[in-house]
């Protein structure tokens, strides 16, 4: 079968949409704020320090004091006790890194706080542009924009996608054949689901859900769909399962059907790939992914989102320092994967990522398990309806570079007391 060039087709549709709304001329006239240049010693990104191993600041992100609810306190007042955190998404522990904190402090002292206004009016600065350039380079894309959150990155992109249907339509409202057919993995993040629901409600898209990681189902849906404009969107690492999308199979289907391939790299940016470029870099298929959506609240260790390949919103200068540090301190990625391997060896649980989802069963049983883990000194996220089915409630554990093998042994011992079917016999790790 002749390969379909999705790149050429979608570039044409996007160009026609931009021409229709005059976006090119509008965007070219937007000012970019030129903040006062700092002195050399004030430059936020000057002398970004990197280290060959963990420092005391790393441990502060996983070993904290928490307040015990009043009902559990002997004197009727909240009591404080030490707790190990296995619920953070800060996999590389960069939020506490001295270089990231230093850059953030310098930037706030120099330029103040807040974006000054929406990105398209007065909020975009050369520092935001430097961050966007760094993220675009990291993911091997031509351009990038930052947004306020990962959620807004998803919704902003999907709103723009719907705009392609609207501005390529013959009339004000797209006919069925003029809409965009979007095929979404059934376990994609709620941010994607909400964005798709919005565009479908606007009459711009037709949304199809395919079975989780089920390529035969996706191929069948794509083959039967008569709509020309097709998009496939998937999480790279699924946040409620911890497994990975079948990227090579998706690339083959892209070649067959010519769809726009969109990947949410929220849980894989800076964690997968030699340089932290995510799943695309890890599998060597960066050129086959058309659009990447991401969140900076995971491995980058702060707040914000981004979309590679479009122009949207702004975020804080300290994120650029986090990207710089993560690329240099490659040991952080290795430590995360060491913890994943060790957890698997300790429990026989086939972990594919730092996200470990242990199904307990009913909501009541899962809450009991969560309380048990708190009593044993571990903070773990509980996942209950409507996020998952009522009989598939689970404990969601996330592993980071700051956790130790000793932490895992204690964790596994406590889990074996409240998670049915978890095989924790023996300790093969030496």
* E-strand count: 13
Content-based structural category: alpha/beta
Spans where pLDDT lies below 50 across 5 or more residues: 310-318
CATH architecture annotation of the largest domain: 3-Layer(aba) Sandwich
**N-C termini distance:** 52 Å
Beta-strand level of the residues, as a percent range? 15-25%
Order of helices and strands: HHHEEHHHEHEHEHEHEHEEHHEHEEEH
- How many H/I helices? 15
Mean pLDDT: 82
Number of domains: 2
| Spatial order of strands in the largest sheet | 3-9-8-7-6-4-5
Q: Helix coverage percent of residues?
A: 25-40%
Question: What is the third-level CATH name, the topology of the largest domain?
Answer: Aspartate Aminotransferase, domain 2
Structure, described:
Helix 6 packs parallel to helix 12 (318-328), helix 7 runs parallel beside helix 8 (190-201) and helix 9 runs parallel beside helix 10. The radius of gyration is 23 Å and the shape is globular. The chain has helices at 6-21, 23-28, 56-59, 98-111, 119-123, 126-138, 150-168, 190-201, 215-224, 247-257, 279-283, 318-328, 331-347, 363-375, 405-415; strands spanning 63-68, 79-85, 144-147, 180-185, 205-210, 229-235, 260-264, 291-295, 305-308, 355-361, 378-379, 381-383, 393-398. The model is unreliable at 310-318 (pLDDT under 50). The protein has 2 domains: 59-88 and 331-415, Alpha-Beta Complex (Aspartate Aminotransferase, domain 1), CATH 3.90.1150; 99-327, Type I PLP-dependent aspartate aminotransferase-like (Major domain) (Aspartate Aminotransferase, domain 2). The chain has 430 residues and is α/β, with parallel strands linked by helices. Helices cover 39% and strands 16% of the residues. The strands form 3 sheets. Strands 3-9-8-7-6-4-5 form a 7-stranded mixed sheet, sandwiched between helices. The protein has a 3-stranded mixed sheet with strand order 1-2-11, with helices on one face. A 3-stranded antiparallel sheet has the order 10-13-12. It contains 15 helices and 13 strands. Strand 4, helix 8 and strand 5 form a beta-alpha-beta unit.
